[in-house]
Structure prediction request, 590 residues.
Amino acid sequence: MNRFDWQSRLTEVYATFPEAKRKPVIGITGNYAEPECKLSEAYYKSVLRAGGVPVVIPPLDDTDAIINTLEHIDGLLLSGGADYNPLYADEQPVPQLGNVNAERDLPELLITQLAYNRQIPILGICRGIQTLAMALDGKVAQDIYEGRSKEQGASVIKHSQSARRSEPTHSVIIEPDSILSSIYQDTTLYVNSFHHQAVSDAGPRFRITAKAPDGVIEAIESREFKSIMGVQWHPEELEEGLPLFEWLVKQAAHYREACELHSRTLTLDTHCDTPMFFPKGVDFGSRDPQILVDLHKMTEGRQDATIMVAYLPQPKLGETFSSKVAFDVNGPTEYADLIFDKIEAIVERNKNYLSIARTPSDLYEDKRKGRKSIMLGIENALALNGNLQNLKHFAQRGVVYITLCHNGDNDVCDSAKGCNTHNGLSMFGEQVVREMNRLGLMVDLSHGGERSFYDTLDISTQPIVCSHSSCRALCDHPRNLTDEQMRALAEHGGVMQVTLYPGFLRKEQEATVLDALAHLDHAVKVMGIDHVGLGTDFDGDGGVRGLANAAELINFTRMLLARHYAERDIQKIWGGNFLRVMSQVQAARQ
Prediction:
């Protein structure tokens, strides 16, 4: 073939459909040498060899340009280069500081944080590992030997080789049970070395996974179950370096698969307590660090909807309700209405992007129009203030469920953490359940005692839900459901939404997203796939490492895919089951 016959190549493209197989797009941060954006060919050729599509990201600190770029890539490669200006770390330069590259520093710190918030897979190389530390709460030593004693200095190795770039010049020791160890199936790797700065503290978001023989940190990876890794050497120059690029491309493909699934799936979190933070003056339209759910985090996590509850604390004997809440109200009903007023005000301020939904149809309409949705719920039927007529009032406000109690018995039923005041449902509670059935309000038995649970199943003509509960078989807590309760719930057509409250997932050690997945797997085994979901309890002390806020919900989907859950089943978990019950309950409204 004539190498200059470019038209024949074009003919090959159009000979079949589609024109090309979809491959993960990997954005590579470009180096800068005035007046040019530059990049070693080894980076983009390694991405191509690994099965990805490389694109170069110029060093621009224009956030519109960065964010629009992130919307079109599936993975991020932070390339190597000069030192960081220490002023970005609130430090003054030490005499040993090397050359800095002012054109790159701010753009790369911004893109790293923004990509991290979006859960985009990241691989940092040389300067890139330092970028990860600088941007994400770690620390970088201006000079690799900074702070070392003379005794330590005697054992240091050379970290800026004069040998050719493809020649390994020292070894690194790999930590077991790490991404690197799974990639290379070894504890020792021979690498090249061209750096002056180094990570001195990986920070709380990362674990150290490789060190040089002199103790210099050579690799870090996410402690939060994210696809983020940094290495100090230059794998693009090494024959053994390709597996790292293959890892990035594979993670990027998983990320894109999860994003595409979310575009076809209505994602509903069935319980969040963000209104508990209203007294602190939160801003739902900003990325507010005080709260775990806001418009930015929902967008980053590709979450469509949440059921936001008016939580009413249960007064103890001798306490008044007004003494338990931050707002000046006359009673629990007025308090719930005040919370709903404030939610409606949030929606009005952000009406182009946010809506209050009252039915499953409303949710799907919002998704079609590109809006996020808030549904209204009540946590603790204390909000009724003993008046059955208030059920009609709250139904007219658009409330979709009422959790019958909280941590303490009320006039409706006994709590899982109560004193068995009524031995289950009270007589008033029986009336409440029947009237909720009539009005099309879902009955929520999270927080309910075991007797209250079974009484409600006996009385309710409609399926009931547990909006944020987990499995007692895995964590023996009275708030969790026994296997017998779970089976009974499923037999009556109801659903149980696994919650992220750490104490309901694990009694000892730190609970993580892996524990939440274990509870979900157990619930599926006991109840079947048609009766499970997720109710995070975000901003009500819910949230675990790996699933800490709404921005990380896309990672939950990635983990479900990795566990080989089918798309249809993931759609059921992400709200399909809960909305089936909601539709049934609302359809029975009289």
Summary: DSSP finds 19 helices and 22 strands in the chain. The first strand starts at residue 25 and ends at 29. The CA atoms of residues 119 and 552 lie 7 Å apart.
